[in-house]
Each structure stands twice: as structure tokens, then as C-alpha cells.
């Protein structure tokens, strides 16, 4: 495989596809996230991707849409990224984060809605991850990470940039595990005095915080800054002035998504079995702050991923239930939950679904999308989904490559029902060559998603070439409840293996796919499973393992989430007869025969690059065809341009080479 | 690593101290030669050529130039002027031309240059496809053999274990590196340059990776080669001869262990080589073998206990040899007609630096020039004539003053728990015993401590420690070179086994003798020494501070990320996918929870021998166990810290760690 493939047909085709979907240089909005609604619900704001060139990280701008007309405008102009716009309670300002002054150094800015003028708030010592207005609109809570703090796996898992510390080329990096820049803390910006200051105990690391009334803060807290400590974080209430805090809830699993009722009397949050920080889907809990009384809310089997108080008593929640994306309203007065909308076809972008409440009736806005639908600003009103403004710049044409989207359910060898999505190509006819794409996590899932982003684009390219795409949600996946998620805890590379393999058996039995042309790919846990599957089963004609774990021992000792390994293997790396060894792909590499493309990011702190290297070397030693790609500027997943183009082109090329789609009969 | 202001100030002060020490020892900027390598004597015995290095500043690598010294007047001349690096000078048999290697045209792209000795004119020869590692004149002086590595070939652990530069046009920084395991640029070949036609061509065929080559007569070369270019394949390389004009090759010998020190007699009748238990390519101390080319017979030669590293035919019958025997460095001559080895010189005060004993013969009596040095002596060019050593030219710029801190130099011998005799050196500081003592474990494991100048990046920290009042203990546990192949073989399959107790019993010995303070013991080491440092603190609580450098923490991840893969299989006698075996059982991470010693882990980001993830794993395992640990990663260094000013920083941090904790 060449190093420079920029002139190859696949590269040029991927590049053209990205250009068609994102139309760089035109000022058009190609993607959207971070939706928020103005009080009253007439307008929404969001972060819109506006690309000037296919280079680097896609920059975002603060954008707004009038829900009545669909009129959409870009309100900011960078440079770099402007993101996470949030309306002030009086609707006069939009707070947002921008790194316009120094790439990666996100600080708070305030946009005057009337004049459009933007002013920077006082900068914090670190970079701001999120911001929340106090209910009275006088202060803004800022989640601040130190320059140099690790970024969550779901966001790339690189170390953030350390400012003011330009090292010379020869100078060593020095780590002691005690660096102060690793910490995350809450700062409060006061609008009247234009001052900003940290609040809270410096020995507490705050992962996530929201206002709890005007004088207190509800926060997800750990005693230290290591990513691994997130898995045992607890819920605290902190006095916003003194910083004195007390633990109000200690979960048995993980917690996230805290949201307080406007007066601060109730704190809603989600407790879930999680594999990744910031990727939380689970059971809704509502805590009465005064009494400490905890209520576990029945959400009709929905794994909750979004919590928004629509009024003092009404909590709008959104989440996932098997194939469906669902919104419900929880009423704190009687503890009841009413389902408002569900869809098997449409979901929203981001890790999981999120919505912005428009009123206390349960109406909401969201960025809707599906396998065949580009992102769009949409509303759900009285239970009906309606498109307000489509951001489709050319996807509909390419999505014609998808003949059908089929939810599939089959039984694993132990009888457990497993779900998955099957995307059949328009080109060719059954039995199709098929690529099984495995999601990360393991506690995460596949749901309807636009295939125009770096994660989905290789699948779209493969569909265009006549490959079917299979997206299984094996045990451990979100949307099936905590008990289902828990089935993978302590058993990675166990029964989940057979969930995937039995899915392929199922599709083969139905006559949909060609058993001689089965491929497998995936990133992170999906990369691990890809490497694992080719050592456990010889049916695969080609494999692409991206950001994989291949040796759980070295992964435990070099990644920034060692706790994850311990938890999901339920073992110790020192136990030589234990799962750190018996579930490591390198231990069985000699059994593999599948040509494997291994891909990694040199900056990845979650699944460091030597994981891919180890499997590559083990395969080569066993005489198996193997290629290793190391992207020097990438972390956990290939996200930047033009690396994302290069990656998609190589993935498609790998399957074409080792399991040709061979749809020549089309021409006959 | 430094948490308090006091620590920070100490580190700053030690940095300045290391800097001053380097300046004094190398007289930086003065344009004088402070270190030497690669000596060669003219056929008439009148002068020597060598590679001299000069430190122009402490912010960049030393300059190396080809130099000559008149053996009668001791007058020195610098013959080349770069830019960049000029090295490996060899005079033609008629003495008229000097061949050398230089990357003056493009950094790290070494090519052959010829300097006419009468006029001083330098000519660049036709470039080869790759970079030249070594050269050798044919006995008739008409051709030059070139060892050529592809752009992007790995370098040996003894050369830093980094990937050599790729000959690629400038590609954008986002572009991935692509490894397929089948890259043509990883191979090493033999090329022959013909002076008459000024042409160069490759003579080794495809599928044959040449590690080392030497002339054997004028028409054939003898090579050690393997069918794979990976560093791991070196351990099973075999001996071949290649006809220069026909490209046919023929296998001569398949060794049980490893090969090195190839040398063919001028007429091509005999071929000498060394077979040895080796841990590192280019680090070969072992048994002499001589092949009779007519009959093909291979004989093992008794060299009176000397582990040979250097072979040089002085005539068709007389072979100059140099090597090690216990504490001693020995030079001798072997005569094929008498079949006898005759020792001409030995010393336990001075030795020769680098990965072999660097001698160059004069005549065929056993006289030679040697590059020598000692713990208290700077590098010098010496001559051994009739068994007498005489300094020709010392390169001492200020070292002897600094080395006054060495109050005593002891050769120690003790018994390991299994009664095997182990040797080591103890360098004592001024002041009263018992001393705070740092044990430094050498690399390899098949390597050794022998008298060495403490002025280079690897050893300068020892000089600093001695000046600060610490004793430095340099043990040669089982596996070390110079004690015969059986002794070396004892570490094979047992790294982290009995060798552990050789070291600990050595520490007991220096404590019992009253030299070392049992409460102020530290340990450090590079490579295998880094592994043993990490290993020792997981198996003993006697050390108060540890500095493992270029260590191995997890044999499995090392095996699957390093270049010299087969070394680990050989030295653990196991396979990495045996979870109950030594790959795990002998990995420090498996016992990190037992450690209590504050540890400074040092690694080079470019190291392909003990990759940086090794140090990271031990660091994280120690932190997880609540042990104080710091990790220092040098972004531009490979296997060991060699560059400047990184070496100053390294010396300061190493000394600083012991000062803070002992």
C-alpha cells in the first residue's frame, strides 16, 4: 500500500463526496449539534459546521433558525470554532464558547441578540468545556479543564494543548501523575462585575455541573482528575459562593446528565452502566435535595440520554428503546411518565439523542437525521415530527445507494434476542457482499444516523459499491436497559462475540449475504472486536481494526482509562490465567488468516497506537497479510481533514481488494 | 518530576553542573578533538587515520571529522571539513587514497568519498541506493566493498534503535505512515565500487539481507546474512560467500549462536569469524572460528580464555585478535601454520570504548595501534609494540582534573548464591566509607563494564555522582561478556532469574566489605540494565531510589512493538502467547505492586528497541501501586539518551533523583 494515495480514484471519490456533502467555501451549514431554544420557543440556536476548506477539524459557528419560517442564519464568524450556544433566561444574550483567540483554548463569549455584538468574558485559567446560565441570568457556570487535561475518548482522547509551555524540540516531557493541569473545575462568571473565579474544593475534580437554583450547583465529582476515576464519580451539591459541597448520591454504576428544576429543589440525573465518559444512557433518577429522597423513574424501558426541565415540575426526557428514539415527559408531582413521540426511522446526531424543550407541553426541537436523511432542524409538536430546515447540501442523491434499511432481530446461541440494522445496497442483488461494522463502547449503539460524517462515510462508500452494511447492537449496547448493558461487563470478548457471529449466520440463512465475502470493521471496542473476531473465526475475507485494543495488559497500563479495563474484564492484569490474557487478540493472532488493515492515531490516549502495532506485528509474524496505518495528527478515531478522506479511501480499498463487490453482472 | 521549589532549584543547579562538566571535559567550541573512533593504520605503518569528534557547542551533536596522526611525530591533522559527519576512514593498500563516508550532501545519507592523499582533493563517488554503513578496500586496492542500508532501515540497538531517514519527498504532516512488513527500504545489501570505472553496483541478491561483509581475497566477499531484514532475523544469520563478479552465493556455515567479526585473509585462503552468544547486533564477543576455504572445514580456535571481538588478517597466515578476559583487555596474534594463539598485551587498567576492541595492526608481529581509555583516563591513541603500550596522542582536555574525584578503583569478585564467581568494578568517591552507592547495571545482557572514560552521555552521570560523593558499582553478572560462552549462556532463558541474585549478592558484598551504606543504595541501568533496575525494585526493598532508562516493563508488548523480536524469544526461551510462561513471569509490571522505591523512568520517544510504552507502563503500574514515580520522555532520542543538550538534562535528572532520595 502506498503512503501517498491522493491521486488514486478512491481518494478522489471520497474527497468529492465530502465536498458534495459539506460544500466547503460556500458558507453553507453542513452539519449541526448543540441545540438550544430561546425562552418561549420561537427560535433555536445550534453549532453549525461551516467549512472553508477540507482541512483540519471542521469549524463550527453559532447559528439560529426561526422555527416559524425556517429562516436560518450564521451569527458568528470565528475564526476557529464557536460552539454550544445558550440563550440567557431573558433571551437577550447568547453565551457560547470559542477558541478564536488561540486554537483549542475555548473561552466564554457573549452575543447581544439585538445588536449582534460579541464580547469576550474574562478568560479562565484553562479551557471551557460547557457553560450554563444561572436561573436568574446573572451568572454563568463554566466547566473548565486545565490546559493539558485529557479529552474524553468520545471526543478524541488526545491530551489537550498545554499553553504557555512551549518546549524546545529536544526537551523531555515530564509526568509525575500529580500535574495540576489535569484537573477539571467549576468557575463562575458574574455578568454584573465581569469577573470570573473558580469555586469549590481544589481537591475535587468536577466532570459535569449544573445550577441547582441560583445559589447551588449540582456536580458529578471525583477525588482526582484521572479519566479512570470518572467511573466511580458521585453526585454533589455545592454552595455556589463558599464552594462547600456535600455528596448527595453515590451510585453503584456511573452517573451523568444532571439537571435541576428551576428552583433547585429537585435534581434529575441518569445512572447507567457506561464504558465511556460522556456517553451515558440509562435509568432516570430524581432526587429531592432537601429530603434526600431518591426516586427511580419508570421511563417505559427507555434508556434516558437527555434531561431538560420544561417547568418547575415537568422534566422532558429523550432516549432510546431498542430501534426507537423516544421523548417523554416526567411529571414530578405524581411521578408519572408520558410518552410523547417515538420513531424507528429518525433519531438525532451526537452520542445519543438530545433535544431542546420549547414549552412545558413536551414540545421540543432537535437536529433530526437518519440513514437516508441529512441533518435538519426539526420540531416535535404534539407528538408529530416536522422538518423546519433541512441542511441537506447533496446527501439525498448519494443516499440512493441505500435500497433499504432493515431492523433485524435474531437469537444469540444462549437465546438472548439481539438487534441490528441492515443496510442493503441499491447496486447488485442478493446474496450481497457484506461488511459488519461494530460500534465502540461497548456501551453505545447504532441508531439511524447520517452517513456524511467521518464515522459513517466509509459505510456510505461501501454501499455505493454494492456492499451491504450490517450494524449489530450486541449485548452491552445501549437502548436495552441496564441489565442488557451489564451483560458485557466482565465479559468483553465473551458472549458478545457470538452475538455478532450469530447475526451473520442469521443474514446468511436468510440468503441476504454471501458467506464468502464477509468483512468486519470497527473502531475502539469495535476495533477490539474486529481484531478479536478474526482470531476466533475464519469466515472473514477482510478486516479493518481501527483504534483497537489488542493486548489488555499494555492497554491497562498505557491508556488513560485503566479502570475501564478492570471493570469490563472484571479481573486484574496481574492474573496470568485471567481475562486480561485470555481475551487479548494478540494471544490468538497465530490463528488468524484474515487480511487485516490496522489503523491508529499517534496521539490516542484511549487506545494508544502500540495496540494496533502489536496486532499488526503478531499477524505479520503469523504470515497474515496486515497493513498498519498510523495517523500522526489524530487521536481516538480519524476525525480531521484530509486524514478522514485518506482513511475512508483506504478502508474501501481494503474491502475492494480482498472481497470484491463484483457487480459486473449489472452491466450485462 | 519536581514538585517543590527546592527540588526545582536543585535540578537547575545540577543542570549547570553537568553543562560545566561537559564543557570542561570536551573543551567545547575550542575546535579540538575530544573523542575518537574507527582507527586504521597506513600500510607503511607511518600514520593512522581515525574518526575524531569535536564538540562545537552543547546544543548539537558533536562534529566528526577524519583525522590523521603521524606515528613518529604524533602530529595530528584534520583531513576533512564536512559539513555534517565524516567517518570510517580507510586508507587504500597503496596508501594513496583515503576512502571515507560522509553525509555532507544530505543529512544522514552517508555515501562514499575518496580523498587523494597527495593533493587533498576530495571526490564524491557514484551514490548507492541507500546509505552506507561501512566500507572496506579489496586487498588489491581496486574495489571498495560497501555495506548499504535502505532509507528507512532500522538501526541496531547499539546505534540508538531508531528508524533511519526515509528518502521520501516532503509529504504533508497529516499523512499516515504505512507499514506492510514488506517494505523494500528495510533491506541491507552489499555494493561494490570499482575505482577504475568509477561505477558502483549491488552484488547481493534479492531476499538476502546482509548484516556484515568482508573481503575474502579479491574476488569474493564473505557475509553474514538472513532471508529477512528485521533486526530479529540477525540472531539466526548464517555465513555465506558471494562471488563479486557472478553474484552467486554459497552458504559456508550455519552457527548455533550469532556471528560477527568477519575477516578474510588477503589471498582468500582463510576466513576468520566469531561465534558468540549475543544479545545485541554489533556487540559480539566470543569464540574464534577459522574456515579453510579450500576444504570448507571450520575450526574452533583456543584463544586462551579471551572472548574475541576483533579479527584482522595481517598476512595470509597471521591474524591479529583483540578481546576480553575477565577484567582484562587482551591483544594477541594467531598463526595458522603453528595453530597457536600468542598473547602480546593485556591490561586491566585501560580498554577500548565502543562495541568492539578497536585495534589496527602494524606489520604481522602483533604490533598494533589501539584506541584506549580508562575510568581515570581520556580517550587516547596508543601503540602496542613488542608487548609494550605507549601513548601516542592523548585527547585529554581537562578530564584528569575532573577524575580526581575517583579515590579508588576496585576490581571485586564475589560468589553468587549458587557459588558462581561474579566480578564487578567499584568506583569509590573521596570521603569516608561507607558511601551512598549507586549500582549501574549494564545493557545487553551480553555486554560488560570495562575501563571506560566517564565523559560520554552514557557514563557522565557516573562522574557527576562520584563528584557528589556517591560510589558507583558496576557489576558484570552472569551473561556478561569476557567470561566465556558458558557464562554468557547462563542468562539465556533466565533473564530476571539467577542474574538478579548475582547483582543482589554483589550489593551484599560491597556492604559487607564496608564500602557501601546499606541505607543509601540506588540502582540504575540502560536497556537490559533498565529492565533489571525495574525488576530489582519489584524483588528487593533495599534500594532507596531507582532510575531505569530505556527499560522493558512488559516483555509481551515489547516483543510485539520492538524490532529485535527474536532476541526476546531466545533470551526468555518462551513464546509471548504462553500466559503462564516467562514472558509474563519475568515482566516487572507483574510485580510492580510489590515495589516501594521512588523511581524515575527515562525513555526516548523514537526507541524501537525498548519503545517508550515500556517506561510508561512501569510508571503507571507504580503510580497505581501508590509508589512515587516520574516519567521523562525525550522526544528526539532513541535507545538511550545521546543527543545534546538532552544528555545534559538527562545527567542532571539522574543525579538529581539520587540526590533527592539517597
Summarize the helices and strands and which ones pair or pack.
The complex is a heterodimer of chains A (668) and B (662).
Chain A: H1 9-22, E1 31-37, E2 43-49, E3 60-66, E4 72-74, E5 82-87, E6 93-98, E7 107-112, E8 118-120, E9 127-133, E10 139-145, E11 173-175, E12 184-190, E13 195-199, E14 205-212, E15 216-222, E16 234-239, E17 245-249, E18 254-260, E19 266-272, E20 283-288, E21 294-297, E22 303-309, E23 314-321, E24 324-331, E25 336-343, E26 347-348, E27 356-357, E28 364-370, E29 373-381, E30 384-390, H2 395-398, E31 402-411, E32 417-425, E33 432-438, H3 457-464, E34 468-473, H4 482-486, H5 495-509, E35 513-523, H6 525-536, E36 540-546, H7 552-558, H8 562-569, H9 579-582, E37 596-601, H10 609-621, E38 626-631, H11 643-658
Parallel strand pairs in A: 33-34, 33-35, 35-36, 36-37, 37-38
Antiparallel strand pairs in A: 1-2, 2-3, 3-4, 5-6, 6-7, 7-8, 9-10, 10-12, 12-13, 14-15, 15-16, 16-17, 18-19, 19-20, 20-21, 22-23, 23-24, 24-25, 26-28, 27-28, 28-29, 29-30, 31-32, 32-34
Helix pairs in contact in A: 1-11, 3-11, 7-8
Chain B: H1 5-26, E1 35-41, E2 47-54, E3 63-70, E4 76-78, E5 86-91, E6 97-102, E7 111-116, E8 122-124, E9 131-137, E10 143-149, E11 177-179, E12 188-194, E13 199-202, E14 209-216, E15 220-226, E16 238-243, E17 249-253, E18 258-264, E19 270-276, E20 287-292, E21 298-301, E22 307-313, E23 318-325, E24 328-335, E25 340-347, E26 359-361, E27 368-374, E28 377-385, E29 388-394, H2 399-402, E30 406-415, E31 421-429, E32 435-441, H3 460-467, E33 471-476, H4 485-489, H5 498-512, E34 516-526, H6 528-539, E35 545-549, H7 555-561, H8 565-572, H9 582-585, E36 599-604, H10 612-624, E37 629-634, H11 646-661
Helix pairs in contact in B: 1-11, 3-11, 7-8
Amino acid at each position: 500500500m502506498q503512503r501517498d494515495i491522493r491521486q488514486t480514484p478512491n481518494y478522489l471519490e471520497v474527497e468529492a463526496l465530502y465536498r458534495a456533502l459539506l460544500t466547503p467555501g460556500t458558507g453553507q451549514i453542513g452539519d449541526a449539534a448543540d441545540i438550544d431554544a430561546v425562552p418561549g420557543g420561537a427560535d433555536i440556536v445550534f453549532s453549525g459546521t461551516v467549512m472553508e476548506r477540507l482541512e483540519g477539524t471542521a469549524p463550527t459557528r453559532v447559528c439560529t433558525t426561526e422555527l416559524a419560517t425556517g429562516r436560518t442564519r450564521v451569527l458568528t464568524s470565528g475564526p476557529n470554532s464557536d460552539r454550544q450556544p445558550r440563550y440567557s433566561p431573558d433571551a437577550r444574550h447568547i453565551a457560547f464558547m470559542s477558541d478564536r483567540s488561540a486554537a483549542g483554548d475555548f473561552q466564554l463569549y457573549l452575543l447581544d441578540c439585538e445588536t449582534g455584538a460579541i464580547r469576550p468574558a474574562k478568560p479562565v485559567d484553562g479551557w471551557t468545556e460547557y457553560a450554563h446560565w444561572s436561573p436568574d441570568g446573572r451568572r454563568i457556570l463554566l466547566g473548565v479543564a486545565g490546559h493539558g487535561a485529557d479529552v474524553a475518548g468520545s471526543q478524541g482522547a488526545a491530551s489537550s494543548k498545554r499553553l504557555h509551555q512551549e518546549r524546545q524540540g529536544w526537551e523531555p516531557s515530564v509526568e509525575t501523575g500529580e500535574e495540576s493541569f489535569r484537573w477539571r473545575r467549576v468557575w463562575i462568571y458574574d455578568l454584573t462585575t465581569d469577573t470570573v473565579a473558580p469555586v469549590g474544593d481544589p481537591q475535587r475534580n468536577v466532570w459535569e455541573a449544573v445550577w441547582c437554583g441560583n445559589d447551588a450547583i449540582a456536580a458529578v465529582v471525583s477525588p482526582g482528575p484521572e479519566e479512570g476515576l470518572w467511573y466511580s464519580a458521585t453526585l454533589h451539591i455545592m454552595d455556589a459562593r463558599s464552594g462547600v459541597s456535600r455528596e448527595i448520591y453515590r451510585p453503584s454504576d456511573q452517573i451523568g446528565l444532571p439537571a435541576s428544576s428551576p428552583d433547585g429543589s429537585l435534581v434529575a440525573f441518569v445512572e447507567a452502566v457506561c464504558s465511556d465518559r460522556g456517553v451515558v444512557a440509562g435509568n432516570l433518577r430524581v432526587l429531592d435535595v432537601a429530603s434526600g429522597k431518591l426516586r427511580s423513574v419508570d421511563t417505559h424501558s427507555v434508556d434516558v440520554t437527555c434531561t431538560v426541565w420544561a417547568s418547575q415540575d415537568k422534566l422532558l426526557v429523550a432516549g432510546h428503546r431498542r430501534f426507537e428514539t423516544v421523548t417523554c415527559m416526567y411529571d414530578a408531582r405524581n411521578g408519572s411518565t408520558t410518552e410523547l413521540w417515538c420513531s424507528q426511522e429518525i433519531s438525532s446526531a451526537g452520542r445519543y439523542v438530545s433535544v431542546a424543550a420549547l414549552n412545558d407541553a413536551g414540545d421540543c426541537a432537535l437536529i433530526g437525521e437518519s440513514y437516508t436523511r441529512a441533518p435538519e432542524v426539526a420540531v416535535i409538536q404534539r407528538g408529530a415530527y416536522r422538518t423546519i430546515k433541512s441542511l441537506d447540501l447533496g446527501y439525498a442523491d448519494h443516499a440512493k445507494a441505500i435500497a433499504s434499511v432493515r431492523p433485524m432481530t435474531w437469537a444469540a446461541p444462549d437465546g438472548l434476542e439481539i438487534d441490528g440494522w441492515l443496510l442493503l445496497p441499491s447496486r447488485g442483488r442478493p446474496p450481497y457482499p457484506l461488511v459488519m461494522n461494530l460500534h465502540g463502547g461497548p456501551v453505545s449503539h447504532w441508531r439511524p444516523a447520517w452517513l456524511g460524517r467521518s464515522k459513517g462515510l466509509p459505510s456510505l462508500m461501501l454501499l455505493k459499491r454494492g456492499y451491504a452494511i450490517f450494524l449489530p447492537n450486541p449485548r452491552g449496547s445501549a437502548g436495552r436497559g441496564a441489565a442488557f448493558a451489564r451483560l458485557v461487563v466482565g465479559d468483553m470478548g465473551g458472549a458478545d462475540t457470538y452475538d455478532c457471529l450469530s447475526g451473520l449466520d442469521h443474514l446468511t440463512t436468510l440468503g441476504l449475504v454471501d458467506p464468502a465475502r464477509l468483512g468486519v470493521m470497527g473502531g475502539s471496542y469495535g476495533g477490539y472486536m474486529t481484531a478479536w473476531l478474526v482470531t476466533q473465526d475464519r469466515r472473514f475475507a477482510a478486516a479493518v481494526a481501527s483504534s483497537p485494543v489488542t493486548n489488555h495488559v499494555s492497554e491497562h497500563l498505557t491508556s488513560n482509562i485503566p479502570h475501564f479495563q478492570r471493570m469490563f474484564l472484571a479481573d486484574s492484569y496481574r492474573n496470568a490465567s485471567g481475562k486480561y490474557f485470555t481475551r487479548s487478540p494478540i494471544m490468538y493472532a497465530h490463528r488468524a488468516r484474515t487480511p487485516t488493515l490496522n489503523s491508529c492515531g499517534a496521539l490516542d490516549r484511549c487506545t494508544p497506537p502500540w495496540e494496533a502495532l502489536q496486532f499488526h506485528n503478531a499477524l505479520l509474524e503469523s504470515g497474515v497479510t496486515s497493513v498498519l496505518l498510523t495517523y500522526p495528527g489524530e487521536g481516538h478515531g480519524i476525525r480531521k481533514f484530509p486524514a478522514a478522506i485518506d482513511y475512508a479511501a483506504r478502508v474501501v480499498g481494503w474491502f475492494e481488494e480482498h472481497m470484491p463487490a463484483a457487480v459486473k453482472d449489472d452491466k450485462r | 518530576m519536581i514538585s517543590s521549589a527546592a527540588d526545582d532549584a536543585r535540578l537547575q543547579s545540577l543542570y549547570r553542573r553537568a553543562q560545566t562538566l561537559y564543557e570542561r571535559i570536551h573543551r567545547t567550541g575550542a575546535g579540538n578533538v575530544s573523542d575518537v573512533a574507527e582507527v586504521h593504520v597506513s600500510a607503511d605503518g607511518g600514520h593512522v587515520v581515525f574518526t575524531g569528534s569535536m564538540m562545537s557547542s552543547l546544543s548539537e551533536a558533536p562534529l566528526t571529522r577524519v583525522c590523521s596522526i603521524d606515528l613518529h611525530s604524533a602530529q595530528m591533522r584534520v583531513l576533512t571539513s564536512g559539513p555534517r559527519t565524516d567517518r570510517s576512514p580507510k586508507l587504500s593498500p597503496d596508501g594513496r587514497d583515503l576512502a571515507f563516508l560522509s553525509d555532507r550532501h544530505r543529512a544522514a545519507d552517508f555515501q562514499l568519498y575518496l580523498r587523494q592523499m597527495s593533493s587533498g582533493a576530495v571526490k564524491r563517488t557514484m551514490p548507492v541506493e541507500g546509505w552506507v554503513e561501512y566500507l572496506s578496500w579489496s586487498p588489491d586496492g581496486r574495489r571498495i566493498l560497501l555495506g548499504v542500508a535502505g532509507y528507512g532501515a532500522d538501526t541496531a540497538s547499539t546505534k540508538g534503535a531508531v528508524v533511519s531517514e526515509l528518502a521520501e519527498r516532503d509529504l504533508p504532516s497529516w499523512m499516515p505512515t504505512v507499514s506492510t512488513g514488506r517494505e523494500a527500504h528495510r533491506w541491507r545489501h552489499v555494493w561494490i565500487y570499482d575505482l577504475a570505472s568509477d561505477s558502483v553496483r549491488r552484488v547481493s541478491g534479492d531476499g538476502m539481507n546482509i548484516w556484515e561483509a568482508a573481503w575474502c581475497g579479491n574476488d569474493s566477499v564473505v557475509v553474514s546474512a538472513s532471508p529477512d531484514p528485521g533486526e530479529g532475523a540477525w540472531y539466526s544469520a548464517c555465513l555465506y560467500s558471494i562471488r563479486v563478479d557472478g553474484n552467486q552465493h554459497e552458504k559456508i556455515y550455519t552457527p548455533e549462536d550469532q556471528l560477527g567479526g568477519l575477516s578474510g585473509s588477503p589471498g582468500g585462503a582463510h576466513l576468520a569469524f566469531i561465534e558468540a552468544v549475543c544479545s545485541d547486533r554489533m556487540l559480539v564477543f566470543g569464540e574464534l572460528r577459522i574456515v579453510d576455504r579450500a576444504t570448507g572445514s571450520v575450526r574452533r580456535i583456543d584463544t586462551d580464555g579471551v572472548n574475541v571481538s576483533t579479527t584482522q588478517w595481517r598476512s595470509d597466515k597471521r591474524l591479529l585478535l583483540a578481546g576480553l578476559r575477565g577484567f582484562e583487555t587482551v591483544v594477541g596474534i594467531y598463526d595458522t601454520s603453528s595453530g597457536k594463539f600468542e598473547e602480546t598485551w593485556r591490561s586491566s587498567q585501560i580498554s577500548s570504548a565502543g562495541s568492539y576492541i578497536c585495534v589496527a595492526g602494524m606489520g604481522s608481529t602483533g604490533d598494533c595501534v589501539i584506541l584506549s581509555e580508562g575510568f581515570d583516563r581520556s580517550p587516547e591513541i596508543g601503540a602496542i609494540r613488542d608487548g609494550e603500550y605507549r601513548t601516542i596522542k592523548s585527547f585529554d582536555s581537562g578530564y584528569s582534573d575532573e577524575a580526581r574525584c575517583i579515590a579508588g578503583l576496585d576490581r571485586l569478585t564475589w560468589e553468587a548464591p549458587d557459588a558462581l564467581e561474579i566480578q564487578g568494578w567499584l568506583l569509590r568517591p573521596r570521603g569516608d566509607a561507607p558511601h551512598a552507592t549507586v549500582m549501574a547495571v549494564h545493557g545487553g545482557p551480553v555486554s560488560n563494564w570495562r575501563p571506560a572514560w566517564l565523559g560520554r552521555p552514557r557514563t557522565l552521570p557516573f562522574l557527576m555522582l562520584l563528584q557528589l560523593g556517591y560510589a558507583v558499582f558496576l557489576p558484570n553478572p552472569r551473561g556478561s561478556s569476557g567470561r566465556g560462552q558458558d557464562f554468557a549462556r547462563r542468562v539465556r532463558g533466565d533473564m530476571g532469574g539467577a542474574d538478579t541474585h548475582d547483582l543482589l549478592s554483589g550489593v551484599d558484598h560491597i556492604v559487607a566489605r564496608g564500602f557501601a551504606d546499606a541505607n543509601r543504595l540506588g540502582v540504575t541501568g540502560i536497556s537490559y540494565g533498565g529492565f533489571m533496575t525495574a525488576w530489582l525494585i519489584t524483588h528487593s526493598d533495599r534500594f532507596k531510589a531507582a532510575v531505569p532508562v530505556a527499560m522493558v516493563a512488559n516483555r509481551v508488548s515489547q516483543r510485539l512493538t520492538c524490532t529485535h523480536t527474536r532476541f526476546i524469544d531466545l533470551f526468555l526461551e518462551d513464546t509471548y502467547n504462553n500466559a503462564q510462561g516467562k514472558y509474563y513471569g519475568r515482566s516487572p509490571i507483574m510485580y510492580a505492586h510489590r515495589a516501594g522505591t521512588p523511581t524515575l523512568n527515562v525513555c526516548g520517544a523514537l526507541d524501537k528497541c525498548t519503545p517508550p510504552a515500556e517506561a510508561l507502563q512501569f510508571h503507571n503500574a507504580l503510580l497505581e501501586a501508590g509508589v512515587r514515580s516520574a516519567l521523562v520522555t525525550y522526544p528526539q532520542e532513541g535507545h538511550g539518551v545521546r543527543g545534546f543538550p538532552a544528555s545534559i538534562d538527562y545527567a542532571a535528572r539522574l543525579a538529581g533523583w539520587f540526590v533527592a532520595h539517597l
